Amino acid sequence: MGGAASLIATRLMDKLKIRGGHRLNGTIDVAGAKNAALPELCAALLSAEPVTLANVPRLQDVATMLKLIRNMGVVCEHHDDGRVTLDAGGLNNPEAPYELVKTMRASVLALGPLLARFGHAKVSLPGGCAIGSRPVDQHIKGLQAMGAEITVEHGYMLASLPAGRTRLKGARITTDMVTVTGTENFMMAAALAEGETVLENAAQEPEITDLAEMLIKMGAKIEGHGTSKIRIQGVDRLQGCVHQVVADRIEAGTFLCAVAATGGDVVLRHGRGDHLDAVIDKLRDAGATIESGEGFIRVKSEGRLKAQSFRTTEYPGFPTDMQAQFMALNCIAKGASKVTETIFENRFMHVNELVRLGAHIQIDGKVSVIEGVDKLSGATVMATDLRASASLVIAGLVAEGETIVDRIYHLDRGYDRMEAKLRAVGADIERVKA
Description:
single chain, alpha/beta, 4-stranded mixed beta sheet, 25% strand, elongated
């Protein structure tokens, strides 16, 4: 453990050095989705039989989640080919301590599975990116509707079943807002509940659908996933399964924006164009050429693109996780654009760093107005959150001279060796050790 801890401590100081102005040409393999892998690792807690996940991305958040569930008594085996096998048959410590989850908000996803299988759980209030309020009250209300007794004490959610009950009970749950992790938590908990659970106002993201497909392989009875109304008939037990994590649409979208900004011709292997309709439509409007088919997306770009205004909203609308990356493209596009952020209140923290590179951006509440410039100039900038990091990399790829992106541990939380993938298609980018 000491070696792993020192490695992480060292990587906290890493920077990216980028020399801009290079076109991108070639092929990039899109990794498995972080936002599917994390709930699916938690779904393994629902069964006493082994579960194997393929295409698991090599990310800091995934490493943290594996460390967390190992601490619960789960046997985890990480294979070189990206598969992870988990055996929760000997799970004996249904707790998610603060020390292990303080950097990762996805820890809340352990609450539903632990409560459903064991009848009690102790889960720290989650940490993660400082991009705005991510309240867990929706999770608590939904699980309470299923019969759970939950209190929050000393930074922990303490959950249990009432005396005399051995299972959660089905319920109709309507959340006050569309919540991805809430939908995932309720779906996992309902899989082992008594009776039917109906989720109204459910999230519709592809990662939700992928989790549902995994649960169905484990023996769950689920209908309506991918729509705003999901029905789950609880079963007595779930079995093990083998499941492949869906490709990461946000990683794919990030590379689409990078190629659109720099110019070039890149094929994204394993990319799912049908999961990125809103982003691809905007890129085509901007002037990029994009084609997609079974297991690939190809993007070609020539010259300066046209600025595009957009508004973030829940899937299938324009994803908040792509807002910063598309804004970087708008910074060097022709014309003015307006970006409206409706999901998270603090998700414009990359703006000041883009301005350091020469971008012209004004913020008015939830709206950023960008006036495209002919060129950006390299400078030292600092990442403030995961997607902000990616926007600064894209800006660095088009800026004149050298850009240093500091605090890229944010980037490592959500991108599987981004600099290596970009270097392989012609970018002048390298990781600089402290």
